[in-house]
Write a structure and sequence with these properties.
With about 325 residues, the protein is an alpha+beta fold. The chain has ten helices and 14 strands. The strands form two sheets. Strands 1, 2, 3, 4, 11, 12, 13 and 14 form an eight-stranded mixed beta sheet that branches. A six-stranded mixed beta sheet has the order 7-6-8-5-9-10, with helices on both faces. The structure holds 7-O-phosphono-alpha-L-galacto-hept-2-ulopyranose.
Length: about 325
């Protein structure tokens, strides 16, 4: 048995996880900048699935490529791993930011989180309102229900800088027009991203390197759970609320065990227990370099971490067995 009640997930799995995102990232990177989102995503899915099936786990995908009828692989409920070893829940996104990969723009990632059974929010693939900041601030400093101007002002004060030195990351979507206006009215800067809010949220944890202090806005709920898993490991704060605004979404959420449609989830409620998280850069980004193809090797850059120890490792790998890649 690889788990023990006191230590949560086996630490060996942390390093095993790196291969899973590395393989997915390399497969997607071969299709960077080709304008074909579907092909890049499919390549990442295939590669992640085959590597995942080598892991000594009895894994169940709880955040995946979609529900079974729409996703033939890595669908929600799919059993993955060798079938020997601990039972775990898995959240994954083999290519987070398909459009940015297809356009070869920054910050697309291959991402996975492994958690103790029952500890990840089983979110339907709908929108989630999100707010996140990095570590080192008092609990509850920002609040998803507070006006953006208040959150930005509180963050600036806590950081000890004028509001004009705060940068918010927001997905560039028409639905965010009012939010963008409200943030700009404070004097804060906005980094508008085309896709990839898992990276956007992780970037709040290292404002010195990324220039991003706060993430605000509405993106995918599955990406929200993945980001919460990452922040559980690095530190930081996040809140999320599912946008359950139709009867159909309410029914879907209820089937997944969600009974309170207006609930604000804390980071710990989205990803509790022991969580392992890994992300490999596909395209170059502000925290992770993208995959580099050389004559005789392929280089990858991965961040891998574990919530129970809060260890954050960066692994730069040079792969020379090119037949595998
Ligand atoms: C975001 C973004 C993802 O979905 O979650 C977004 O981070 C939300 O959906 O990379 P819309 O595109 O409909 O705004 C993605 O773009 C993935 O599809």
């Amino acid at each position: 048995m690889l788990t023990s009640a006191s230590s949560g997930l086996d630490r060996i799995l942390t390093l095993e996880l790196v291969r899973v995102t590395e393989r997915a990232a390399v497969a997607a990177a071969r299709l960077r900048g080709r304008g074909d989102e579907k092909a890049a995503d499919q390549a990442a899915v295939d590669a992640m699935r085959s590597e995942l099936n080598r892991l000594p786990i009895q894994g169940t995908v709880v955040i995946g490529e979609g529900e079974r009828d729409e996703a033939p692989m890595l669908y929600i409920g799919e059993e993955v791993g060798t079938g020997e070893g601990p039972g775990v829940d898995i959240a994954l996104d083999p290519l987070e930011g398909t459009t940015i990969c297809a356009k070869n723009l920054p910050n697309s990632l291959a991402v996975i989180a492994i958690a103790e059974k029952g500890s990840l929010l089983n979110a339907p693939d709908i929108y989630m309102d999100k707010i996140a900041i990095g570590p080192g601030y008092a609990d509850g400093l920002v609040d998803i229900d507070a006006p953006p101007a208040d959150n930005i002002a509180r963050l600036a004060k806590a950081k000890g800088v004028p509001v004009g030195e705060i940068t918010a990351c927001i997905l560039d979507r028409p639905r965010h027009a009012r939010l963008i206006e409200a943030v700009r009215a404070t004097g804060a800067a906005i980094q508008l991203i085309g896709d990839g809010d898992v990276a956007g949220i992780i970037h709040t944890t290292e404002p010195g390197a990324t220039g991003i202090d706060i993430y605000i806005g509405t993106g995918g709920a599955p990406e929200g759970v993945l980001a919460a898993a990452a922040l559980r490991c690095i530190g930081g704060q996040m809140q999320g609320r599912l946008q359950i605004n139709t009867e159909e979404k309410r029914a879907r959420a209820e089937r997944m065990g969600i009974s309170d449609p207006g609930k604000v989830y804390s980071m710990e409620e989205m990803a509790s227990g022991d969580v392992l998280f890994a992300a490999t850069g596909v395209t170059d980004g502000s925290l992770l370099a993208g995959v580099k193809f050389g004559r005789d090797s392929v280089q990858t850059h991965t961040i891998v971490m574990r919530s129970s120890s809060r260890t954050v490792r960066e692994i730069k790998a040079r792969h020379q067995d090119l037949e595998k890649f």
